[in-house]
């Protein structure tokens, strides 16, 4: 169970993840020592998994984002494991999700341009093991991206 103090810390951490401990404690209405102890407990309990930098890939020249929905040939005993092991090795794949249903796996792929994407698709994606079907969805815009939940 989360205490009110834990909730305040998490709300502030979600809103501004790069606050100093002193600023976080002040915004959460507690002392820095208490805040540090509570944050360590939240990490130990697997509630806070880490803090990450959000990269603007387009500013670095990666302007093409494609979501690939993949159905695997599950007649092979270790199809999922073998596919995921190889997919992790493709540097342009920035996210891998697995699903129950018609689609087994979704890959998020970044590329500098369409020529780069075509090369990655042909030489790295299509050579992944056990692909039965693949559907590409070209990313046009991000309407909402907010992993914060009301706490």
Polypeptide structure, described:
- The protein contains five helices and four strands; from the N terminus they run αααβαββαβ.
- It is an alpha+beta fold and about 150 residues long.
- The protein has two domains: about 5-45, Winged helix-like DNA-binding domain superfamily/Winged helix DNA-binding domain (Arc Repressor Mutant, subunit A, Orthogonal Bundle), CATH 1.10.10; about 55-140, Alpha-Beta Plaits (2-Layer Sandwich).
- The longest helix has 13 residues, at about 30-45.
- The radius of gyration is 20 Å and the shape is elongated.
End-to-end distance? 12 Å
How are strands sequenced across the largest beta sheet? 2-3-1-4
Category by helix and strand content: alpha+beta
Please outline the major beta sheet: 4 strands, antiparallel
Strand content: 15-25%
Number of strands: 4
Domain tally: 2
The helical percent reads 25-40%
Cα shape: elongated
CATH-scheme architecture of the largest domain: 2-Layer Sandwich
CATH C-level category of the largest domain: Alpha Beta
Output the helix-strand order.
Answer: HHHEHEEHE
